[in-house]
Amino acid sequence: MKMPNTSPDTITSPIKAIRAKCLDCSGDSAKEVKLCTVETCALHPFRFGKNPFHKGRKLTEQEKRERAERLAKWREEQKQEA
């Protein structure tokens, strides 16, 4: 069975490819992916489309402010374009 949205143009990362494979293995059911019991599968830890071994980066307060300002500026630009 061919899965929708699994062309090379729509899968943008290895993690998303793993998620697509898990959905394929589970009959396109996200619920079945969540309930997957095949813990010996090498893809099992990645089945939710996230890398469980990737530790999030802690931002400083200054970095948070800078990113918030940049986001606010971008949103304002988007409003003006619309």
TrEMBL record:
Q: What is this protein called?
A: 50S ribosomal protein L31
Write down the species: Pseudodesulfovibrio indicus
Q: Where are the compositionally biased (Basic and acidic residues) regions?
A: 58-82
Region: Disordered, residue numbers: 49-82
